[in-house]
Amino acid sequence: MEGRAEKPHEDEVEDGHEGACLMEAHVSPRIVDGMAVLDVAGELDLYTSPKLKAAIDGLLAEGHTRLLVNLLETTYLDSTALSILSSALKQVREVDPGGNLGLIFNRPQVERIFAITGLHQIFPIFPTESEALDAAKAWLTEPGKA
Amino acid sequence: MADRTRKGVKPYQAVLRTFLTGLVGLLVPLVGTLFITAARTQYDFPFIFLYLPAVLFASYLGGLLPGVVGAVVSTLLADYLFIDPPGVTIAQLRVDALPTLLFLLSGFLVAGAGAQYRQHQLRLQEDLMHSRRRERGARLIASLMAEFARQSDLRVMLDAIARQCTEVLGEWCVIALIEPDSPWLRPGGLHHQDPEKVSRLRSAVEQAPVPKDNPLIVRILEGRKPVPVYPDDPLIQELIPKVPVFREVFSHLNVQGGLSVPIHAGGETLGLFSVGTESPRRWDGEDLRLAAWIADRAGAAIQNARLTDARNRAQQRLAMQYEVGRALSESANLEEALPRILRAIGETLAWVWAAFWIVDRQANLLRCIETWHPRSVVFPEFEAVSRGKPFPPGVGLPGRVWTSGQPAWIPDVVKDDNFPRAPFASKEGLHGAFGFPVLIGREVLGVAECFNQKILRPDEDLLQTVALIGNQIGQFIERKRAEEGVRESEAFKGAILETALDCIISIDHEGKVVEFNAAAERTFGYSRADAVGREMAELIIPPSLRERHRRGLAHYLATGEGPIIGKRVEMSALRADGTEFPVEVAITRIPSDGPPIFAGHLRDVTERKHAEETRRFLAEATRELAASLDYKTTLENLARLAVPRLADWCVVDMVEEDGSLRQVAIAHRDPAKVDMARELRQRYPPEPGTPHPVLKAVRTGQAEVVSDIPDSMFVAVARDAKHREAIRQASPRSYMVVPLNASGRTLGVITFATAESDRRYGPADLALAEELARRAALAVDNARLYAAERDAHAQAERDARRVSAINRIIAIASSSLNLGEVFDEFAEALQLLLPYARVTVSLHDPERDWLTMPYFKGPELTAPAARLEGPKAGTARGRVLDSGRAYVRRDTLETQEFSEDHMLASAGIRSYAIVPMSVGGRVIGTLNFGHHKPGFYTEEHARLVQPIADQLALTISRFQLFDQVRRRAGELSETLQRALLPADLPKAPFTAIGALYRPADPEAKIGGDWYDAILLPEDRVLVSIGDVAGQGTAAAAAMGQVRNIARAYALEGRPPAQILATINRFLSMHRETPQLSMWIATLDPFSGDLVYSSAGHPPPSVLADGQADFLSTGGPPLGTMPSTEYAEARAKLTPGTRLVAYTDGLSEATRDVVEGERRLLEAVLFTRDDPPSRAVEGLVERVLDGTRPHDDIAVLILDTLPVDAPLFFSLPASPENLHRIRRAVRALAQRVGISRDRVEDVVMAVGEAALNVVEHAYGGRPGNLTVHGEIHGNLLTITVRDFGRWRPQVDRGRGRGTRIVEGFADSVRTHTGPAGTLVELTWGLNRATLAVPQS
Fold first, then answer.
1. What is the ipTM of this complex?
2. Looking at chain A, which terminus has fewer C-beta neighbours within 10 angstroms, N or C?
3. What pLDDT, in 10s, does the model give residues B1283-1308?
């Protein structure tokens, strides 16, 4: 114990995500080269996932059926989030034969979740945004909705 | 004319008179002139003689004008008649200038003189009238003075003054006197000439009291002159509606004018009287003078009456006491004494009805057994209802006196709430009343009450006096009861003996003895053989009576009638030795066939006769003894009485205070020898150590009789040969020495001796002497008591001042809230009343039957004083507690009857007095006095301090009551405080909290100390501790407010410093909130970051790595300066650190800050191995170290748990809490030092397991979820548990969730039971950074 410290001791950062201590997830859509990208930052769990669902529903309502969900800044996601993502994928593919939903992440933890749940086989998954955007260009040229 | 009108002459009378006078003035000269004319032709001298008196007369009767007119007319007429020839008209009238002018001139002069004289006469008349009024005034004064002399009753006198005033000054009069201590004038006397209006005036005056400070009243009172008041006076018109009494008087009576007169006497303003008229009247100077005069005399009379009243009352009291004392000393029993007592009280006080009520203990009722009223007035109904209706305790005047044991006063029974006899009293005009108890100790034996026809204000002096009388009567009753007891047993014994001693003598018709029993043999001195056959008359009847006996017998035999057959008669009988003695005889005829036989039962009544004589003697003695209240005179009377009836000489010695003897009375059969005896005694006083009988009697308190004085006694007693010779000269034959015992003491000794008469004393003489001595002792005791009471009376005033001083002391002391101080004040005040070497107070604890001694003053006992605290049994104080009566020990060395005796004796306390302290009829303890001098205290002393003891009892019980109230209030605020302290301390991850609150005095004192600990968002912990200045509910309430503000702002996320600033602003806004110190902090249990701020609070101690230290201090206390900003401080609490926050009750328990802190740190170290919940206790015990805390103590311990401490986390199973669980689990994993990847594995698995609980365990209902993490060796086990009943087996998401859980944990075990589901996750650890000790 150091005692009588007037200034805060800067705790060494053990985890880059430790700072995101608030129970929050930020979900923000953007359009890059005609492609709808959904940035998700923070933790996605039962409490925060409805945000993700709402954002996806919003994009769908606007007619976006080819989506990228950027999970690079997502520190945690649980089965709730997985359910939302997989049902969204199903949905875009139902409404649009050329519809697709790609995921961007590189954290081994997330990779393991998708691996464990087998979802890595149904989602197009990209390690970076640029790779995702490159790949997604092709989606845009594919025949769309009726 | 106006002048005359004012004097009351009617106008028409004045006109008539003037007309007549003018006529006379005209007629007289005319007649004279005609007369002269008839004789002469020229008017001349004689005419003048007629003319001038006529003018004079006219002007005298009618004034100047008729005189002048008369003169002119007469002159003109004379001119006409005598100078001018007939037939001349007025116009032709010739005037002979000079004579006419002279004529006129002289006429005018005479008219002027006449008018002047008339004026003079009128003035004289007026003066006469005035003097007549003055005379009436003087007569009035005289009658007033006579009234004053006759009347000592102020009210009657005032009525008389008012009545007299109405005779000279107005139709009505009201006298109002200034009352001391009252803002109103009290209407004194009043009168109205019209009897019908008296009541109207009275109601007007009584309904509207006159304030002393009314401007008009002030003007009247301050001026020394009468003030006329007219209704047309603008000031009065203005005042009428404003001043109630004016409004009343003016509306009830047609007031046309009034006169208010101040009454002064000896420079003092006593009041005023007002007179008024209902016809128009102005007051002239004479009226004012008369009024002033009356006021002057009335003032003197009032003052005089007041003084007389005071003196009379004092005399009355003395006379009453004296009369009651006489009644008591002269009465054989209560029944005999009561009528006299009631009469004495009623007559001396001049009250009209008195009654005595006796307590019927069995029925628990008061019964009226005796009443009194003066001959002149009766109250039949009131008396009947009083006698017919017993009163229960507390009811009516007798009942309330019975209950309280105190005298009571009712100003007006008719208006009293608790007076059932009110209707009868009202009907028969009884109003004022007082009652007093007849007491033995604290026991009320009866109640006396006394009534008056007037409404009377309480007279404390009188109540004190009657209280004393009540005690006197009580003592009398007690004494009589004791006497009764003795007498009854003697009478019983006597009855048995007498029967056995009856003589039976039977005779035949010839008067010859046929039977002569053994008793007769003994009594008469004949043997049966001698007696039988002889004529009885010859045997036992004195010669003078023999003939009568024989005639009687013959008469009976002839007629069958006899005066004595079948009756008891007394007569003289004759013994064989020729002596006569009195016998009581009952003769019956024994039925037989032959000649009649008579049986006589004879009883020797010598003894009874003797007893009767003795009784007469004693009665006479009692009368004599009671005749004086001076005890020396009493004893002289006694000695005089004893000689020669009982002794040839008699000496009375009194025991002095110091134990020596003083000869106070001596009497001798031969007056010449009195001086010799006195001289002998003076020269040779009884010497201590010699077997002098008087000394022996003093020592033993026992009487002694020596029938025949042996010569050896002279030798033993005599100082020398000369003394012995002197004693022999006196030649005493026999003596009796009888002590005068009263009130448990030997007051003196009476010596009865015989010499010349050669009489030898026997037991009968001793009995008489003892009885005489007993009565004498009583009389002496009474006389002493009377003297003491008289002294006490004189002292009463001094005492009253002392008592009032004591009362003030009590008042002051009661505000100090410290009974010890009250005792001190009492002890000091008591020293004035009753000297002591040691005074103590013992209180009785009825539950344990235990005596405590909360107070003592004086020498310490050699053995610990505590030994006078203990069981009640066997103590003198216990005896007093049980009996409720004071106990006095003359000498502690004499006997060691009680457990105190030895203790006190060893402290040099030789005599003591124990006085019961009662309150509300309950003896709660005793007030104990000790003195070095043996025999110092008497019952009288005890009686003297009894009221003080009771007062002290009252004070103590008030304190006890106050304590109770305070305790109850304390309980309330304690409850409040407990309610305000958190019921449960929060469980935050990796922390443990313990706290303790301990009030300084578990029973009474409640402080405003508090601690608080709650969980904030993100599982941060808010802790605060503080101390509100002040105590009780106000402090507790302030504390609650502050705590709530702190909580609210902390929940909003405000840092501690800001919270303090906010509270400070809040407190500064509310002036009534007290100052407080506070320390507040938030701790992030994951990082160990402590953010804190302090407002004048002692810095918490921090214990880390075996080192204890203090945190930094902070700003000023809250509520001192409105705009204070508080600095924020931070500290890092690494795992395994202990923070100890406390209030100054702990750090200043030793009253030494440095030492306090040292002890605190030492205690912190001492208790470091205990968990917080136990450590708080240990810490406080360690610091206090057995001492009693003088302030409240609050302690809060906040531990950051060591890294290997298990995690236990319990929280509601809801979506928003999932994050908290992951966070705690992540922290746990990090703390134990596992690799980052594995940390996230743990988080993923636990998060998913928790999600499952949240989603499914409770089906939407609230429920808890616990996470328990523990390291065993290299194994991390985390258990996620719910308490739900139902768990769906199949779910769409479940499969995925389960896969995640199983995928991230090394192993998963699930238990599902009725009490919920438990998922146990384990990981094998490969701990990288931290070495964890193996458990």
1. 0.84
2. C
3. 886 555 444 445 788 888 988 898 99
